[in-house]
Design a protein that fits this description.
With 174 residues, the protein is an alpha/beta fold. The protein is built from 5 helices and 8 strands, in the order H-E-H-E-E-H-E-H-E-E-E-H-E. Strands 1, 2, 3, 4, 5, 6, 7 and 8 form an 8-stranded mixed sheet that branches. The chain is globular, with a radius of gyration of 15 Å. The relative contact order is 0.23.
Length: 174
Amino acid sequence: MSEAGLPSPDAREAALYARFRELGIAWKTYEHTAVFTVEEAAALYAQQPGGHTKNLFLKDKKDGLWLVVARDDLAVDLNALSKQLGAPRFSFGSAELLIATLGIAPGSVTPFALMNDMKRVVTPVLDEGMLALDPLNFHPLRNDRTTAVTPGDLLKFVRAMANEPVITKLPLRT
């Protein structure tokens, strides 16, 4: 699905930085070619210090929505995670649902998109181990940039934009 109907990438990014300024969050942004997968992003890591991440937009069997934010090298066991969280079985949310809920297209998923969840229906799940890395790198609502923030500022942002995050040790596939 295209980004038709969404604000331009420049407008999305500007709105994010305005929110950062409101919250007193410092950031550093790196420009690069568009990346759509963790593998493509890995080629950029040498120029971007800190923890690198992946973001999984999930829907459970009872239509609950979840955003799992984890270190990019983790193979998360989604069945075990749904049990751990007391949620019905997970599947990946559709592109249409992602756009409607978080105002972001596939390939640009980020915890920063929680600012677009006006109804606060998405539950953020943060990888406990990720929060030990500093800085943390995420897309700034577009996938041709990476924005670094401290773990403390990530938590400040998420708490201001969303439901209280679930911070947990994520179960891994074996």
